[in-house]
Amino acid sequence: MKEAIQRINEKIFPHNNTIASLNIIRTRGRVYKQIDFILPGQLGFSLLMAGVFGSSFLLFSLRQSLVLKRLRVTPANKSTIIFGEMLSRLFFHVIAFIIMVALGYYAFGFTLVNGLYTFLEMLIFSLFGLGIFMGTGFIISGVLQNESSISPVANTITLPQILLCGLFFPIESYPHWLQGFCNLLPLTFFVEGLRKIAFEGTHIWEMPKQLLGLLCWTIFIGFWSVRSFKWK
Question: Which SS3 state, helix, strand or coil, does residue 231 take?
Answer without folding.
Answer: coil
